[in-house]
Amino acid sequence: MDKETSSIATYGGIIVKSIILAGGFGTRLWPLSREMYPKQFLKLNETSLFQDTVLRCLEISDITEIFIVTNELQKFFVLGQIEELGYEFPADNILLEPVGKNTLPAITFGMNEIKKRFGKSKVSIFSSDHILNKKAMEIIRNSEELATDHLLTFGVVPTSPHTGYGYIKPADAIGNGFKVSEFKEKPDTSSAEKYIEEGCLWNSGMFLFDTDVFFEELENYTPEIDSAFKKTDDIRMIFEEMPSISIDYGIIEKSSRVAVIKLNERWSDLGSFKALHEEFEKDDNNNIIQNCDDVLINSSGNFIHSKSGKVVSLIDINDAIVVDTPDALLVCPKESSQKVKDVVSSLKYRKDERAQLHQTVYRPWGSYTILEESEKHKIKNIVVLPQKKLSLQLHHHRSEHWVVVKGMACVQVDGEQYFLRQGESTFIRAGVKHRLSNPGKVPLEIIEVQLGDYVGEDDIVRFDDEYGRE
Which of 206, 218, 227, 443 is the most buried (most CB within 10 A)? Predict the structure, then answer.
């Protein structure tokens, strides 16, 4: 079956549309996850969590009937990672939120677009950063009938008294699910143990909605969001009026038409390094070692991530998180890994870019890695993918010196175009329009030296950009 025109396989009958919520920033997995490269796009295995979610949706939806709600910063990760899977994704199925307003506005954005294009539909809704096994998708697909009259949520049978999840208490059976008795907030350990004894389920944040039922309940319980989408098609104006509210608080916990489907399947929201440790393959001493060599003495239950070729040694250390990146080091007990988000908050308060950026920053044309910097200089390693180009741009406060390390560079400076090969270089003065592109079939790699009174990333004026950036 041609990947460019269709999906993998569906389970027959009416195809369910899908919404993937992909706008989160993954602060609890810092420093692996950053605002400009959040956890859903990290490749913890051969594919990212986002790519895994797309592949799951293709089990129940056609590629043209998957909608992704994200933001401008993450748009190009979405397109690039779907392209890596071998699919041609409709660009207008990427719905860009002007500002994040929690899950109810995001879901309404997607549901509204699906209703406009397809009319009455059944729509599955997934976060882009969860782990879920394949069998669960068949259960979700086979719950269509119950979704005709109910807002369906999916509750996972607990494997432990987890304090990081909310809980759902099922009531009377209905169809292949249950009416919902009540929703419970994230508990302490003793309350979680009690909830499990009562037969409660983890609240997975996955849903299956009929468009008619959804908009009826939206109008009943959150009319301000419903009316905002009815007033105008201008998404910026809509989101200006929008309250920030979750789907749970806005509708699910209020409606009498909610049912839950029980999933006794592997699922995790990977909301902490502790959760990562629970999900991935471990060695004989219950350690997870990623991207590094290790010498561990009397140490077990640890999650260790560093860079290739680096030796990480732990002695008499148990149940710890050790994450080493070029610009940040995190060390904490595994049980304290939920507090990582507080580190990110502190960095943001200090206006430290390391909350948002890795030393390697990914762009739609490739990536750059900051090798060295001060107030008046910055050295980057820049990689431009084959047949890709940067914007036509200028900088007011810095000049740039480029040296080609690998491949061939096409350089445009002040209207003149020329080519540079390995070992050749050029110089661009401040205030001069310029552009770098890769006409070749292999990645182009250059070293860029920036010099000036200011070398911040916001010193850029774009005149032409094929990726739609301003």
Answer: 218
Helix (H, G, I), strand (E, B) or coil at 241: helix
What angle separates helix 211-221 from helix 223-231, to the nearest 10 degrees? 110
Structure tokens belonging to residue 168: 């759902």
Q: Along the chain (470 residues), what's the average pLDDT of each consecutive run of 10 residues? A: 43 73 86 87 87 94 95 85 90 93 96 95 94 87 90 94 90 92 90 93 94 96 93 91 91 94 90 87 91 88 90 94 92 92 93 84 87 90 94 95 95 94 93 95 95 92 82
In CATH, the architecture of 360-464 is Sandwich (2.60)
Q: Which residues of the chain does CATH 2.60.120.10 include? A: 360-464
DSSP 22-71: -----GGGTTTSBTTB-GGG--SSSS-HHHHHHHHHTTTS-GGGEEEEE-
Could you tell me if 122 and 212 are in contact, meaning their C-beta atoms sit under 8 angstroms apart?
no
Per DSSP, the three-state class of 449 is: strand
Superfamily of domain 17-267: Spore Coat Polysaccharide Biosynthesis Protein SpsA; Chain A (3.90.550.10)
